[in-house]
Amino acid sequence: MEDYPRTVLDFETRFATEEACRAYLFKLRWPEGFVCPRCGHRKAWPVRNLFECAQCGTQTSVTAGTIFQDTRKPLRLWFRAIWYVTSQKIGVSAVGLKNVLGLGSYETAWVWLHKLRRAMVRPGREKLSGVVEVDETFIGAKRAGPHGRGALGKAVVLVAAEHDGPRIGRIRLRQVYGFSSETLGGAIAEMVEPGSVIRTDALRSYNVVKQMGYTHQVVRGEAAEGTDPLPRIHRVVSLLKRWMLGTHQGAIKPSHLDYYLDEFTFRFNRRTSRSRGKLFYRLVQQAVAVDPLPADRIRGGTSEPDNDDPEPT
């Protein structure tokens, strides 16, 4: 049964203590009861804030192996961050999170947001299926590049969008490095269930999908004058670019782009949800299911975070 706060007052009441936050994480991480991460035994003894396996003696905490691992901040603050992130429909900036939580530095807020973005991808999530439109778009450089598929200094993002009748169903976004059959075919295989119908433009590299177990439909702009051959894709791309420009000032490094794509996908696929509390539940649930992500890996080996939302003057 899904258990989540319905209102901000409910949230503040339920998660007023560290013990309440740990108990909630325990329930989401081990819904059927404790499972030792080393030997799989199901019985443990409580030792302070740890659990000691009754069989192998391994001690673990409810945050070990999750995005909360090794945090020195209270779980109450993490929970407030997750509530704030999921309650804002258009997303939040690192500056906004820093100010709301009273964090000591911009970089701390920036790292937290990237950890939460990584948790927005559910391990083992279902692939798209049915009829799926696929196309690429360019993200990044403000300077104009050549026409066609050769824009210099820009990241290439492959976009896949399900048909849900006349509407857009679920989407998937992924940064790709080139337009070869191997590159595009590999990305599609990760996004779309075999046996689905793939609709693309006439780029030859997409022809490989026939060999991969898909039905391939090539659409051409001139086939029906005045109509959009890939309307769902182009709508998603328009919303993505507007979101990046409005929320993150459009200044996102390619090395960090995938994190932002994950957040946009999470928000878009849950855009019809009427309960912000349920989004909070989903994100906490996924936060205990993904592996830890050290800050150095998030930075990509650099000492400075993206200047995606500069301090207001």
Report on this model:
A hairpin with a 2-residue loop joins strand 5 (154-164) and strand 6. 36% of the residues lie in helices and 16% in strands. Mean pLDDT is 89; it is low at 309-313. It is of the alpha/beta class and 313 residues long. The chain has a five-stranded mixed sheet, sandwiched between helices.
List the helices and strands and how they pair.
Blueprint (H helix, E strand, L loop, with lengths): L7 H7 L3 H12 L14 E4 L2 E4 L5 E2 L14 H13 L6 H8 L4 H14 L11 E10 L13 E11 L2 E10 L4 H11 L5 E4 L14 E4 L12 H18 L8 H13 L6 H12 L7 H5 L14
Parallel strand pairs: 4-7, 7-8
Antiparallel strand pairs: 1-2, 2-3, 4-5, 5-6
Helix pairs in contact: 3-9, 4-5
Nutshell version of this structure?
By secondary structure, this protein is an alpha/beta fold.
Q: What is the CATH class of the domain at 131-243?
A: Alpha Beta
C-alpha Rg (nearest Å): 22 Å
Derived structural class: alpha/beta
What share of the residues lie within helices?
A: 25-40%
What is the H level of CATH, i.e. the homologous superfamily of the domain at 131-243?
Answer: Ribonuclease H-like superfamily/Ribonuclease H
CATH architecture designation of the domain at 131-243: 2-Layer Sandwich
Please tag this protein with its features:
Nucleotidyltransferase, domain 5; globular; alpha/beta; three-stranded antiparallel sheet; 10 helices; disordered C terminus; 313 residues
